[in-house]
Amino acid sequence: MKEKITREEVAHVAGLAKLSFNDEQLDHFTTQLSDILNIFDTLATVNTENVEPTYSVTENVNILREDVADNWQQKQELLKNAPLEAAGLIKVPAILDEGEN
Amino acid sequence: MTMNYFDHDLTSLHQQLVNKETTATELVQATLDNIKATDDQLNAFITTNPESALEAAKALDKAGQFDNALAGIPLGLKDNMATKGIQTSAASRILKDFKPVYTATAVDKLNAAGAISVGKANMDEFAMGGSTETSYYKTTTNAWDHTKVPGGSSGGSAAAVAGGQVPFALGSDTGGSIRQPAAFNGIVGMKPTYGRVSRWGLFAMASSLDQIGPFTRTVKDNALVLNTISGHDQRDSTSATREVPDFTSKLTGDVKGLRIAVPKEYFGEGIDERVSVTVRAAIAQLEALGATVDEVSLPHTKYGVAAYYIIMSSEASSNLQRYDGVKYGFRADDVKNLEDLYVKTRSEGFGDEVKRRIMLGTFSLSAGAYDAFFKKAAKIRTLIIEDFNKVFEDYDVIVGPTAPTVAYGIGEEIDDPTAMYLADVLTIPVNLAGLPGMSVNAGFVDNLPVGLQIIGKPFDESTVYQTGYAFEQASRLFEKKPDIAKEY
């Protein structure tokens, strides 16, 4: 049976999702995602002409509040959760490769 | 010294506190001792917070104010609800050691009422799973048989209550994650109407479906907890502005004239015959109590799983983009640059089930797939809502089984995601429609509990409780205890 999604497509989606898989994992995910997409196939058989999509069931529209800052003076507590901090800021690696070019 | 919660409901604990027969400190200490005595069997908790719990109990005892029904009563929280200064990991490696700087609104409301959380309960990673086996930290067991799964994703909360460690717990339900573990453990689990309880501080999986709700041993206890955690919150713009009724008001035991609908699709293919028989017997009992029972049809039920897994995974893939190793939580080592940091952190920090759902969601939202998958699923969602609306024109509640089977063995299903997803067929439509749904124990098959699911109209949790209470009081099934009760 033709797979619902190819290995190359799975690799492409992984790139979009910022995930990486080795060859074995890629094979595994391709098989599993194909199986799941087979379940999704049943939806194509339902006539949804003139049916509006539902994205949320909330009754609320545009809940507003006063524009007042609340519970914001927590810099030190927030920094405690950062994996790496320096000089009161969160430290991350270089955006471009270090040592290249 | 341990405390046997099987013999004391919330009302009785409250009376003991008011009458000064016990103290909040004694209850909190006993609850911690309960966990110490039995968690090697249940593995229900990832974290406990004895110091802060005992401190809160002492302050309460000193003030001596036990006016609120939950004041001084200990509880457990699913580990996806933010608790200030206490690790909140969502059972994921990517949030190991993460200590939020704020507390979830539902938890804040419990704190304000004087209830005291003693720990964070195990769950499927980011609430993705139906067996609590996808947790990075541990495998929780069923309170009735420790070789079986507790259900999921709120399996730790359910096992902690059913196993008698705590008098109540909170869970969250996106596609059945409160009701199914409640069913597997023979207790009461309520997923309220979407918007009834604030989601602020609940780590988002699928924002249009997620809802917090209580696990308790009895229906009345459940209504008391929902009374406390419900209500509008300006920090969650989807929380309902409607007035919160007293959810205990219809607990009379009377269901005369109540119109019950039984969807024929809920007893279809894939439902264990013994589960069907048990649930049909429970429905017959409600009929004997004076309710009218008719068979109805919810024709789009069979499309629910597909529509749900597209919508849920799409929302989840978007919500989980925030976990990138920069501001908090786990960060991978040995990275070349910022892009590499994102990819390595996420690949090492997330487990397989989370990755599967991120992949499914990213695919469903990607160019070329959006109309055929995400938008199509949203239209099916409309049809499922219309099915329910039609039935509720003539009926007060819809009842059926909560899950197609009783609890299965640990390790039996985990390698077959497709089978796991299909097992959610009975709970998923309720989330897609945003309705209140509750599971109460309907009886036993091979000494494992079977769940009776009761579904109500939007914001009509009261009638759901009325129905569950009448059945519970007539069946007295909550009096049956698992073997672990002997430990207290």
Following the backbone from N to C, one meets helices and strands of chain B in this order, namely HHEHEHEHEHEEHEHEHHHHEHHEEH
Q: Could you say which structural class the secondary elements and strand pairing of chain B correspond to?
A: alpha/beta
**Can you write the helix and strand succession of chain A as a string?**
HHHEE
Report the end-to-end length of chain A measured between terminal Cα atoms. 47 Å
**Could you describe the largest sheet of chain B, including whether it forms a barrel?**
11 strands, mixed
What is the structural class of chain A? mainly alpha
Helix content of chain A: 25-40%
Rounded radius of gyration of chain A (Å): 23 Å
Name the quaternary structure: heterodimer
- Percent of residues in β-strands of chain B: 5-15%
Mean pLDDT of chain B: 97
* Distance between the ends of chain B: 9 Å
Q: Major beta sheet of chain A, specifics?
A: 2 strands, antiparallel
CATH architect. name of chain B = Alpha-Beta Complex
The number of domains of chain B: 1
Number of strands of chain B: 11
- Low-pLDDT regions of chain B: none
Overall, the morphology of chain A is flat
Average pLDDT, all residues of chain A: 89
Question: If helices are DSSP runs of H or I spanning 4 or more residues, what is the number of helices of chain B?
Answer: 15
Domain Amidase (chain B): 26-464
EC number (chain B): 6.3.5.7
Enzyme class (chain B): ligase
Family (chain B): Belongs to the amidase family. GatA subfamily.
